[in-house]
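WARN  no MSA supplied for this record, continuing single-sequence
INFO  ligand: HMH
INFO  echoing inputs
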Amino acid sequence: MAHPDAWRAAVSHPFLEQCQQGTIQTAQFNTWLVQDYLFVVEFTRMAARLLSAAPPADFDVILSGLSALKDELAWFREKAAERSLNLNAAPQPTCEDYCRFMRSLDDQPYAVQATAFWAIELAYNQGWQRHSPMPDPYAEFADRWGNPGFTKYVSLLEAQADQALAAAEVTFQVDAEELFLKVAHLEKDFWQMAFEAD
Ligand code: HMH
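INFO  complex generated
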């Protein structure tokens, strides 16, 4: 991993630690939940763009991701309803920054999009997994991104990104490394945004 410190900050944050300890405040968790739903809506669009840029050999993994995102969006709506949260909320500036970043990849080559997509999924896989198990009501959240099936999916995304990058021009390989660092910062900021909610 090229940026170990930045990555560590992306996948271990007081927000996750306090979920694991059961001490996270409801306002903090609910802020994360609503903003992450808004994030996932944009991430789903990014997945669709990734599919449209992908070689057919990579379709299966991306389609399985899109199918999982269909379930995930429904699950977010269920969790929000249980907590009486309004998902028509405005994105906070930090969430908006992340969404803008994802949209900015639109015209990038497949190798770059695939690397960013993998990094984004890896961040949640490692972040939730490293803070597992969590007590209820957070257990199902930790499990969603920390379960072994999700880890497997992330490793398939990595293999596809690696293969595309190996075939790409060196300048795209540099872009991909910068993207990884950018994702690390955006992830840390996202946790911090939720953590600061009151
Ligand atoms: C902020 N990063 C963020 N939210 C997510 N749901 C994921 C990554 C993984 O899909």
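The pocket of HMH is lined by residues 36, 39-40, 43, 120-121, 123-124, 187, 190 (CB under 6 Å).
INFO  checksum written, moving to next record
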